[in-house]
Amino acid sequence: MFYLALVLIFALLGVISYYMSVRMHKGLLAFFPKCKFRPVLAFFMTLTFLFILGFARVGFSIGAYCMGIYIYLLFYTVISHLVTSILHLTKFHFVRHPRYAGFAMMSVVLCTIVTCIWGFINVQRVHHVSYDIQIQSQTDISGLNIVMFSDLHLGSVGSEDRLDKIVDEINHLEPDILCIAGDFFDTEFSSIQNPEKAIQTLRKIRTTYGVYACLGNHDAGKTYGQMASFLEQSNICLLNDTSVIIDNRLVLVGRIDGSPIGGYGTLKRKDFTQILTPEMKNLPVVVLDHNPANIHDYGEEADLILCGHTHKGQLFPANLITKVMYTVDYGYYQKDAKSPQVIVSSGVGYWGMPMRVGTQCEIVSIKIQ
Q: Which domains does the chain have, with CATH numbers?
């Protein structure tokens, strides 16, 4: 079944490449009547090959950038084709101009270049998002400053170069607690080029009560043990379906992800009620659960849930898809007064291509009122 799926994926990519080649060749013919089809097809097949390398993490740097270029060339080619079809139906006279296909092709290339350049620039910026929330509690937790981020994807292209900046941004927010809501790693620990330097950078994080993390779907696989050791050496407490009491004022729970890529060995996700102990009953409960699809697992026993995973789509128009897929794909949400409050971050990093279009990399601060 796995090999059949691979064959189907490669066949689909081949069809897409051929489709884009035909559309691009038609545009080139408007200006260069002697242009041959084979070089255009060869270009798109090469781009497809690099896209696959990026997806498979082989020759990852160039492949990662080509992933974004490939996606937006396809996106704008489809948009151009749809617009052309509509203009034909409405009998718009300009669509019959001999150079129309050429101008359409130029528009596709220009839009792709502008979008990708913006995406590559925008992803380098780290935004600060703040929420003021109220939690009813028998203990006084007002004024507590919880800083959180998710989806660092350490090991992805350029992620280690950004780590110093991210740590500086965190320290500037003066957190009482730093919460990491999963996908700290990018599936393979070996993709981190300089683990020792990254550990030393992470040890510079300053908090009042510590740094805590839960596992995301990418924090898994055959190198999970190395990931857990890395976090321990970085002074990050990993909560694997376990809880900790912070300053006798707050319970922090970290959940393991329900769909890890490659698994967590013998670790299995527990029922939430198995994690809480009797002495935690009268304390407010904050939960780190990577995937916001899990928010329906919680009731009145949880007060605040911190999630990531969605990246808010990372690239337009994928952010429109995540909005449909999840009850909340980004931002603040509360179903009703008896339900826990939920905050979903778009993440401080990125998966695959180092791009952000229509979304942003962010660190979140949560002030308890």
A: 2-122 (no CATH), 127-368 (3.60.21.10)
